[in-house]
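Researcher: Please predict.
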Amino acid sequence: MPTDYESLNSLQTAAEVKPTSTPASVERAMGVRFEFPATAYMCCARVDHEINCLVGVVYQEQRGRFRDGATIRTSTLRRQFESHGYHVFETSNGSAYVVCEWAPDGFSPRFSGVRH
């Protein structure tokens, strides 16, 4: 596994990202002027259709609930739309998650915490 995190850029996966670093895909999304306040940016994301939520690795969460690199499961999804080429999911708690990277087919982050 590469140890030079600067060279990974968009090839980063949750397992390769240092907990304190921000993936390049998140940095790019943060540079976009969305028409809404983004609650957080998510990598390695997948929709859990069974319970209608989003699971993934979160970065730059604005409400102070999660550290960068934490794996979370959102509250119930209320709406999905596209903005500036990104998929955005609004939840029943009023959060807006910007998906920066989808989890590869057959893979997803392990979730063992509480739902938000």
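Model: Confidence is low (pLDDT under 50) at residues 1-14.
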